[in-house]
């Protein structure tokens, strides 16, 4: 059922643009979904994309533009005049309109807003530009169906028909009192089953979930997920109904957050994807690699301090990469579980309890791994004292790595910093250094050198 | 606006259970959302949870049970008789009912299904148990509003009222022909604005997205995300309407998939969370750590082969952890980008092109890092030949690591294996070994030893 963008279609479109066959293009793309138009805009070159946006109906292109990656959209908008951009914005829901305007430079922003004809739309956009992007206000749209408690079912249906023209999908009908304060919602089922003269105040449901316009977007996502809400109304401090947030925006938000955390854990610091340029990818990757380099140089310095020991006990040096790798692996595991738990509001109990649990876990894992390593070194090298010192070090290093991996994200979270930054290269690098230091120190101690 | 589960409330509930104050419990929990009931069931002990499930209305508890973690639910269901479980299932939508039944042992499954009174529900569940869990059939529910094209608007509204009683939320009204084949959908807007004698065939929208019952769940998620669908009808080979999938199930699916990929990248092989027991966590973490141990032992063996070189050129050994760590970091970065790109259907072009791009990227990053390392080693150790051999090795190792990190997930994906398995410890470990091997080999070559 999915639309498949063939290279034949792209070639056909390019050819039509080349000969400026506007009618042919319009016919060809008339029935195409905006998400597919977006894919087409992404595949053709910049001039061709501009041509298509100018040619096709804004109703179709405005939503397609919102589906594009930010960098592609930026290039496209650069080619359009403020009047043309305003034309696209007239067709957008307020939430999309504001997202797009927020991406423009300040002076272009003003020029574009000035060109918007619909005064109500303009005022809504100006209001919404004030909200933080990562708050409920930044996610909401002004488009919704609102009815007054004093209306009858007949009046309500009449009003709904009018309002519904502007609202893509009627999720819920919100009921307000004379001060425009949210007091409840109306189920379509009740509306269908009530006589036309019934007052709304008699049939509305007073129990309604809502969020405050300043609530963090993350909390909104959690609330909607937990209660399986498909739309949630947004109110101000006085409970006045300002807008609503729909589940499709939350789906995008959840996906983006998950992608960001995943990339952070892999040591990629910006929102990039495989199709980005090598330079963009380098900017996202190189800083973390420098951190790793710094860690490696630190490890070298530490090992340099034990140079004599290592030279006389070569067997110890053979196992430094093993110790460093295990410290990194355990640290990443512990931190990932905590970061994910924090994201899902799943982490209960005190930091102390959490560290204790991780310590027990690390002791269990560490003991199993240390015993295996002990026998391996003993059998292969035939030196029980080396086997003992290497495996005991591994045991201690695993415990310390687990504790660091648990503590750092919890600490960052407590300080209001996104704990996801602690996963990946950061934990690996610091655990490499700690691991090697502990290893050499313990080995020296046990071997009495 | 979110319900906050206080320890006072839990204590109060436990006290009421203790004195068997059923009326008090019912009053206290009467208005509580099923998602919050689930949190309560999670906090009290097993016997208390069983007590609550027996006491409270199945309408409330059935949905709460579905919100529980699988292991908590399993323990709870163990306490209930097949008849009691069937009572909960009567209240569930078919999709939840099937998910829960699928978790039971075979003989209990049969006993429970036999106890379901509603014959239609029973038949639906039996039918749905045949679909693969990760297919559209496994996600869909049978509950939907379907109207025939031959009906009038008035008849349609009458039928909708009846059907809507069984359907929690009316997303869309699907129109079928006399063979029960999906031919379109009905917008509530059109229904509100049409006269009662209008035929459905005159007002329905023939353009409707749908999925086949055997389509993979992943494809359904992508389709619904791309086209911002809130519900999608499911049909069989003959286009007969079987059920529908709603966006809230897809939200859960997306979240689960993201969590799984994240954990895989961190070397955690089962779906665990912070609250799981130490034993469960160990089972999820230890296998990957053993893999790391194996890798470390491999690295030790390789270094053992170069023992003489290392003994005479101690400076080389100081940088083995750096080389290993950088190989791991680059490998994780490359593989993460590819895995995410594959998950988002974002990877275009051939494997060859992809590898070429990664190679160029790795050369750029590698050169920058190698130059920095060269000057550092030169200045700090004063030996230009060591500085050259170490930094040139780093350059080569980074390129190889990037290529391995790109190639393995692409290769696994081509072979139909989930590429996410290639991220994390797997890539880190293999790149550690390759990195050290390449490093020592090149150093030996350059230093002529």
Automatic annotation (TrEMBL), chains A, B:
Coiled coil: none
Domain of life: Bacteria
A Pfam short name: MgtE_N
Entry's transmembrane regions: 286-306, 318-339, 360-380, 386-412, 424-442
PROSITE patterns assigned to the protein according to its UniProt record, in alphabetical order: CBS
Predominant localisation class: membrane
Domain CBS: 140-202, 204-260
Keyword terms, alphabetized: CBS domain, Cell membrane, Magnesium, Membrane, Metal-binding, Transmembrane, Transmembrane helix, Transport
One GO cellular component term: plasma membrane
SUPFAM superfamilies the UniProt entry points to: CBS-domain pair, MgtE membrane domain-like, MgtE N-terminal domain-like
Membrane topology: Multi-pass membrane protein
An annotated Gene Ontology molecular function: magnesium ion transmembrane transporter activity
Location(s), subcellular: Cell membrane; Membrane
Function: Acts as a magnesium transporter.
Subunit structure: Homodimer.
PANTHER family with a match to the protein in the record: MAGNESIUM TRANSPORTER MGTE
Family recorded in the similarity comment: Belongs to the SLC41A transporter family.
NCBIfam families documented for this protein: mgtE
Protein known as: Magnesium transporter MgtE
Originating species: Dokdonia sinensis
């Amino acid at each position: 059922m999915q639309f498949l963008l063939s290279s034949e279609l792209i070639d056909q479109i390019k050819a039509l643009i080349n000969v400026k066959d506007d009618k042919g293009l319009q016919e060809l793309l008339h029935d195409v979904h905006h998400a597919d138009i977006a894919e087409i805009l992404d595949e053709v070159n910049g001039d061709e994309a501009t041509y298509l946006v100018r040619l096709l109906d804004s109703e179709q292109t405005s939503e397609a533009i919102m589906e594009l990656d930010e960098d592609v959209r930026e290039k496209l908008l650069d080619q359009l005049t403020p009047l043309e951009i305003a034309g696209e914005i007239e067709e957008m829901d307020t939430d999309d309109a504001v997202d797009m305007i927020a991406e423009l430079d300040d002076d272009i922003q003003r020029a574009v807003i000035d060109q918007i004809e619909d005064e109500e739309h303009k005022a809504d956009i100006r209001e919404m530009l004030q909200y933080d992007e990562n708050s409920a206000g930044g996610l909401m749209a002004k488009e919704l169906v609102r009815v007054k408690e004093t209306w009858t079912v007949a009046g309500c249906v009449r009003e709904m028909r009018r309002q519904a023209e502007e609202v893509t999908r009627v999720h819920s009908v919100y009921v307000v009192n004379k001060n425009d304060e949210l007091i409840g919602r109306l189920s379509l089922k009740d509306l269908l089953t009530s006589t036309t003269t019934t007052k709304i105040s008699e049939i509305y449901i007073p129990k309604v979930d809502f969020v405050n316009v300043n609530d963090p977007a993350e909390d909104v996502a959690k609330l909607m997920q937990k209660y399986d809400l498909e739309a949630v109304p947004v109110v101000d401090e006085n409970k006045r109904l300002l807008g609503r947030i729909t589940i499709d925006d939350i789906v995008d938000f959840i996906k983006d957050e998950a992608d960001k955390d995943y990339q952070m854990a892999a040591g990629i610091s910006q929102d990039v994807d495989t199709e980005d340029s090598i330079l963009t990818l380098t900017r996202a990757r190189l800083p973390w690699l420098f951190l790793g380099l710094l860690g490696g140089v630190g490890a070298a310095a530490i090992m340099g301090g034990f140079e004599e020991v290592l030279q006389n006990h070569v067997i110890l040096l053979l196992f430094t990469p093993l110790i460093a790798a295990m410290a990194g692996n355990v640290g990443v595991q512990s931190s990932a579980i905590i970061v994910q738990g924090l994201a899902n509001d799943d982490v209960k109990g005190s930091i102390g309890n959490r560290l204790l649990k991780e310590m027990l876990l690390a002791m269990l894992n560490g003991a199993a791994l240390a015993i295996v390593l002990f026998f391996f070194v003993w059998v292969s090298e035939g030196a029980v004292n080396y086997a003992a010192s290497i495996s005991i070090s591994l045991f201690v290093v695993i415990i310390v790595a687990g504790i660091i991996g648990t503590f750092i994200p919890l600490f960052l979270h407590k300080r209001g910093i996104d704990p996801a930054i602690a996963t990946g290269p950061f934990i690996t690098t610091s655990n490499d250094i700690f691991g090697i230091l502990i290893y050499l120190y313990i080995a020296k101690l046990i071997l009495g050198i």
